[in-house]
Each structure stands twice: as structure tokens, then as C-alpha cells.
Design goal:
The structure is a homodimer. Chain A has about 140 residues and is an alpha+beta fold. Chain A has one domain (about 5-135): 2,3-Dihydroxybiphenyl 1,2-Dioxygenase, domain 1 (Roll). Chain A has three helices and nine strands; from the N terminus they run βαββββαβαβββ. The relative contact order of chain A is 0.20. At the A-B interface, strand 1, helix 1 and strand 6 of A face strand 1, helix 1 and strand 6 of B.
Chain lengths: ~140, ~140
Amino acid sequence: MIGRLNHVAIVVPDLAAASALYSTGLGATVSAPVDLPEHGVTTVFVMLPNTKIELLHPLGENSPIAGFLAKNPAGGMHHVCYEVTDILAARDHLKAQGARVLGDGEPKIGAHGLPVLFLHPKDFCGTLVELEQVAA
Amino acid sequence: MIGRLNHVAIVVPDLAAASALYSTGLGATVSAPVDLPEHGVTTVFVMLPNTKIELLHPLGENSPIAGFLAKNPAGGMHHVCYEVTDILAARDHLKAQGARVLGDGEPKIGAHGLPVLFLHPKDFCGTLVELEQVAA
């Protein structure tokens, strides 16, 4: 069912410092910061040959990652995102096995303009899991 | 400098349950458990098309992940591993920029039989980073 690891998301307290760390320190190619006000985050993409790291920082009030950063002031790994080709089939399969989908259970349009769902970390070994629907 | 994301490691409290979650629940291909007594872990590999997830469970006394599991009884994301082609050059570059290498600073042979180093999470946005040397 799941395909590629689309990204690993890391919440960071200072986006400029984190960008420098990944570019100058680790020698990776990083994007310019992108504000996503409808998602309450600013994102920097670290482009790796096989996947990407998304550095996230809260944007605006009521950012969904503000609480995470308050609990983890140094930052930390926030979620992993797996690709699926049929997000509704994936959701229904997982729900039938007792996994909990966050929110109202309906896919939303995520940071990449594609349908996404989040699965409860308590059902996935303490790991917040995002599913993103990609073309088959 | 860094290349592919080699793996994301997730510490889990119950390896059989986590394997079933990733195979039956998420529909991924998972390996049989592999005991690595010299590393103090038992590992299950979740094979994705572009990278892998390593599910880790403590093995034996003094497992290096026992403390993590005690703090995170439901499990959680433990580290990310980036590939490099020259681990000593990567280490020296990072140390020159103030990053701290865990342990004595010398590469050890990791779970895949290749030289690895771990970088201090406080220097990497709260994320434990493993570097693994692969063939150029």
C-alpha cells in the first residue's frame, strides 16, 4: 500500500540557522523558505537524491506545530510522510484495522497541493504518520 | 556532502506488533527480525521503494536504545541516517564548524557493516543524525 517515503519533517526553532546547518554544515541543497499560511508553517526543503527533509517553523497564530516546539525547544523529528496512490482506500483499510485518522477523517489538501491525512501517533509506534496521495 | 537518506530509525516497544502494523496495516514489505547483539538491538527493515525504515527494539543488557524506550514507552522516531562517501572528511568538516561527534569521534562499524558516526542532536535541531559511509 505505502510507496515512497515522501519526506521526513523536522520542526526547528530557527529556520535560517537550520538551513545553514543543512547547507553549509551537511552540504545539502536547500530551498528558500516558503510561507504556507494556510498550514501555519514556513518550510525549507532539503533536497536529497532519494527523498527530502522538510524543515518546519511555526507561522502565524495557532500554528499546528507551535505546541511541539514549546515541548521541544531545540526542535525535533515531527512526522514521516508515506506516499499512497489511493488515499481513501488506504484510510478505509487502516480504519478497518483500528487505526485512528486525525481530524474529521477526510483528506485535506496538504503542503504540496495533494490530498493528505494524518494517522494517530499512538497507533504507529509513537510516530506521527502522514499519508499523501500521489499519481499512480 | 550528504547523499541519500539511508534510513529513518524508529524505536518500538513490541517488534512483532510493529512489523504487523507496517506489513498488514501499511502494506509494506518487512524483513524478518535480525538480532545485532554487538549493537544491542533487534532490527526489522521496512523496505520502501526509495529508502527504508528501521524498526529497533532493545536487545540484551545495556542496549543503547533502552533509555529512549524508557522515556518514550510508546516508541518514537530515534534518528535519521544520511549517506556520505568519505566519513572522515565529513566528520572533520562538521567538527570545524563546531558540531559534536558522539563517543570518541572515531567511526565504528554500524549495523550494515559500514563505518558510521553519530552527531549530537543538540547540534542538529534536536535530531540524532547518523552518517554512514557508502561506496562513492
